[in-house]
Each structure stands twice: as structure tokens, then as C-alpha cells.
Amino acid sequence: MDFAALMSKELDKSKKPTSTAAAASSSSKYIKRADVEAKRREDYLAEQARVEAEREAKAAAKRKREEEDAAENKIREEKRQKLAEESRRRREEKEAEEERARRKRLGLPELVKATAEDDDDAAVEEGMEDIPDGQLAEKLRALGEPATLFGEGHGARLRRYRRLTTVVTKGPIPTTLQLVEEKDMKVDAAVPKDKEGRRWLFRQLASYFTMVLAEYEKAMEAERRDTTASKTAYSAMVQSRENLKPLFRKFEKYDLDDDLLAPIIEISPRRRRVAPDGETETATTRENKKTLFETPGRVPDRESGWNSNGG
């Protein structure tokens, strides 16, 4: 090998690494669009996650502040009520002491302090079933209510429990009376004299009027049109419902005179009794038959039951 060939070979060796580095440098200038989009999406998702985390942190901090404020307000309100009760109790004691001193100075007899027995008597008069005081306190606590309030007797506590547990029926006129089924709505012709009978009668009447009003409302809703006659009929139905509300309140209190009960029973479905011939008859039918029997010239007919002579 001559000197020229040797030098050419050495020069080729020195040029190869330079060309490789240049090619690598040239390829690094170009990046795939997919890689760019993936990197951009990754950065966007990371930013959204950071923003959402900050939002949740702020919301949690806000809820915590609100809960702390609510707890502080509750404690403050309880303290205020307690102070108000203490102030009222001291004021009442002071007024009672001044009244005792005044009556003693004037030579008047001392006032008799009302006891819880008066409340108990009132509760029994209202027809509420009595509950022992211990059980009543447990029931009130189970409802999340205080077992007793300041100055509250057993009767008042019992009434408070009844108000909390009273179920109001759904209907045209909501009522606390327990409604009966349609088959039990037929009432007797005479007004019952005993307490249980009257209570059952009030439940029957409330159930009957509830059923009638519900059907009335349904019919008016079905025929409701944008006409004067339809609006007038619907207004009459609403007015009838409003007029019956005081009657329902009387039913709930079991407080209605016999003079009013009698005509109400007349328009209510009455219990029928079986006649000797197997037919059913009401009190009105019996009165009509009695009149027919006493009418001259009227004799029974096999087909119609009644006929006149020569008819």
C-alpha cells in the first residue's frame, strides 16, 4: 500500500463519526405531531386536576366554616334561651314573692299554685290516652325532642307528644281523624249517646265527606274547561270545600251539638236493616210505609206492593 492510499484511508475514518453526529442532530429537529398532542393533553389534564383539587379544597373549607358557624350559632341560641328562661323564672319568682307579701299585708289568703294534675285532667277530658311519665320522656327523646320544657306539666307534655305523632290524612280536607273504609261509612239513624259511639260517628262522617269531596274534585278536574260555566262550577267546588273545613275541625274535637248532627246524618249514607220480607229498608222507607198503611183505600199489590182500590 502506498502512502497516498494510507492517508486516504485515515481521512475516511476521521470523517465517519462527524457525519453520524450530524445525522443525529438533524433528526432531533423534527418531532411527531402525535407526541406534541399527547404532551399537550397531558399538561391540560394535569392543569384540570389541579384546578379541581383547589375547587374541592375551597368547597370543603367553606363547608367546614359553615358547620362551625352553625354550631356556634346553635350554642349561642341555646345559651340565649337558657338565659331567657332563667330571667323569666327569676322574674316570676320575684313577682310571686311580691304578690305573697302584698296579700299577706292585706290579710288575703295565699294563692294556690296550679299543679300538673290540672293538665292531666284536661288531657283526659280531651280523650287522649295517658302514657306514664317515664315512657313519655323516652318517646320524646326518640323523636329528637326535649323530654321536658320549662314549666311543662305531664298533660302539656302529653299533648306535645300527640301533636308530634299525629298523622294527618291526605285528602281534599286533611284531618287528624282516622278515616274508615267505605263499607263502614253507613251511620245509624239515631245520634249515639255514648262517647265511643259519637267518636265513631265523627270518623264515619269525616270519611264520607272526604270521599264525596274527592269524587267532586275529580269530576270537576275532568270537566275543567276554559269557559265561564266551567270556571263557575270549579269555584263552587272550591268554595264548598272551604265551607266544610270548620265542620271537619268540629269533627276532630268531637264537639258538635245533636241539633247539628241530626241533619248531617240525614244527608249521610245510613245503615239499612232487613225487612221481614227480605228487602232492605231505611228509616225513611219505614215511615213512608207506615203512612201508606194508614192511608184509606190503599191495599198491597202483588206486583207493585201498593195500589189503590180500583187502580
Automatic annotation (TrEMBL):
Annotated Low complexity bias: 17-29
Any single GO BP term: generation of catalytic spliceosome for second transesterification step
Pfam families tied to this protein: PRP4
Positions of region (Disordered): 1-37, 49-123, 269-311
Xref: InterPro entries: PRP4-like (IPR014906), PRP4-like_sf (IPR036285), PRPF18 (IPR039979)
Pre-mRNA processing factor 4 (PRP4)-like domain segment(s): 131-183
Signal sequence extent: none
Protein name from the UniProt record: Prp18 domain-containing protein
Gene Ontology CC annotations of this record: U2-type post-spliceosomal complex; U4/U6 x U5 tri-snRNP complex; U5 snRNP
Domain of life: Eukaryota
Composition skew (Basic and acidic residues), residue ranges: 49-101
